[in-house]
Design a protein that fits this description.
This protein has helices spanning about 15-25, 35-50, 65-80, 105-110, 130-140, 155-160, 240-260, 275-285, 300, 310-320; strands spanning about 1-10, 15, 55, 90-95, 120, 150-155, 185-195, 200-205, 215, 240, 270, 330, 335, 340-345. It is α+β, with helices and mostly antiparallel strands and about 350 residues long. The model has no long low-confidence stretch (mean pLDDT about 95). Pfam families: ACP_syn_III (PF08545), ACP_syn_III_C (PF08541).
């Protein structure tokens, strides 16, 4: 399987760390000033420590909507690949951001673009795009499909974060709220086609950590046992214990990398799902990955783009001539769940 093309589109509203801090004060006019100031200082310190600078959101005043950016990505991917809608055999929609629980969101975009492809969705938090790649690889390798398109629309800010998570109840809230302030938004479209290239996917799952990052939906209580870490912000609101995620994730992903990768220097570029630039740079340094090979530019400039982080990174790297055809590539994501992956292929 080969990647024909990856197209990414991001919304236009750039949100700085300073705006995040100012908005905390605006959203809490009746709270004790000293508590808010302490909270603001802690948030700003931790954002800077993670490598955060800006994140991108839809500009609602300009009328930006997810549908337009997703559709634009699809059209641009088809054009760049010199393919028509009818050439796509399978359309996979993946990720956290979505407009429908039923039907699969892929059907809605197939309908909007007059595509007669088979359709389904994949949901595995920030791992969704990589999981979709492996599914596409298995289908293409078996000869079942020829051209597969993977799309996502990670637009979650107004749906699950803002302004609700800017309202401060107490200082302890920062433990499970800070990651919300790093989230950005993006749409991507990836087209993959048959080739002799071999891909490998190695995973580790840690379901015992599944309660560390969640967005519960109405009636969730009937589907799990009681858990004090879930639903701390309410239904459809994002809860993420960032420090616990990173401390556990760093250990698991580092061990997986050591187990799977025998020659670190043999790869040309590594693409993490960066929910923290600092964390992945530290892991890279520990493993002996040269900083210039560890592509961490997405997080500081666009925010945590959830399952769109890696495809956005590849799109950016190609525009910067940081990746070229024939390069040996590692995808290096960690995700809520928790799950971790080392995926290897030739671009």
């Amino acid at each position: 399987m080969k990647i024909e093309t990856i197209i990414a589109n991001t919304p236009s509203l750039e949100i700085s760390n300073e705006w995040i801090i100012e908005e905390i004060e605006k959203q809490n006019p009746d709270s004790p000033k000293n508590i808010i100031k302490i909270y603001q200082r802690q948030v700003l310190t931790l954002l800077k420590k993670s490598g955060s600078k800006t994140r991108v959101w839809r500009d609602r005043q300009k009328g930006e909507v997810a549908f337009d950016l997703i559709k634009k990505s699809i059209k641009e991917a088809l054009k760049k690949s010199d393919l028509k809608q009818k050439d796509i055999d399978l359309l996979i929609y993946c990720g956290v951001g979505k407009g429908f629980k039923e039907p699969a969101n892929a059907y809605m975009y197939a309908r909007a673009l007059n595509m007669n492809a088979q359709c389904f969705d994949i949901s595995d938090a920030c791992m969704s795009w990589v999981r979709s790649l492996e599914i596409a690889y298995r289908f293409i390798k078996s000869g079942h499909y020829k051209h597969v398109m993977i799309i996502n629309g990670e637009f979650n800010v107004y749906e699950h974060l803002y302004p609700y998570l800017w309202k401060i109840k107490n200082l302890k809230q920062i433990e499970y709220t800070l990651p919300a302030y790093t989230i950005g938004e993006a749409a991507t479209a990836t087209i993959v086609s048959p080739s002799e290239q071999v891909w490998t996917f190695d995973y580790v799952s840690a379901p015992e950590l599944s309660n560390l990052c969640s967005i519960p939906i109405e009636g969730f209580e009937g589907f799990i046992e009681k858990d004090d870490k879930i639903n701390l912000h309410g239904i459809n609101r994002f809860v993420s214990f960032g420090a616990d995620l990173f401390s556990n994730g760093k250990k698991i992903l580092t061990n997986l990398t050591k187990e799977v990768i025998k020659d670190i220097d043999s790869f040309d570029i590594w693409f993490p799902h960066a929910a923290s630039e600092t964390l992945w740079l530290e892991m890279g340094q520990e493993l002996g990955i040269l900083p210039e090979k560890n592509y961490t530019k997405v997080y500081p400039n666009f925010g945590n783009l959830v399952s769109a982080s890696i495809p956005v990174g590849i799109d950016l790297a190609e525009k910067e001539n940081k990746i070229k055809r024939g390069d040996s590539v590692v995808l290096w994501p960690g995700s809520a769940g928790m799950s971790f992956c080392i995926a290897q292929f030739t671009y």
